[in-house]
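dude i think i finally got it to work??
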Amino acid sequence: MCQVIRPPDTGTLPTRDVAAAIIVHDGKVLGARRYMGNEFDGFYEFPGGKTELGESYEDTVRRELLEELEAAVRVVRHYQTTDYDYPKFHLHMETYLCTLVSDPADIRLSVHDEYRWFAPEELRSVEWLPAAHEMLDRLQAEGTGL
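look at this
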């Protein structure tokens, strides 16, 4: 289990350490759209959020999914590490393939205004945050692997 250790400030873009979940259910992947008025509003993303100091990425995924979707998940395996420079910050994202422990019908949104289940070939039918594009390509090419 990896714990977050903040690197020293190098004077470049500030880093946001996040963990995200690719939630797979019945062969489809959950995407959530950020609500209007939120940073990056209107874009789809894989839900998750910022890590807390000393918290493992896996624990971050579990905590954030409970907070954002009221959904309990089982972390299956690490999927991908993504580093991406947005204009105001550097994103370091650890992404995990997950399955739902709770019922999909019980999902409740707090920082998103919509969620959808996408077959891998449908992923590009909506606009995603730029940092997700490499994962979208991989999911389309390889499927979910579950």
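The chain has two helices and seven strands.
im so relieved honestly
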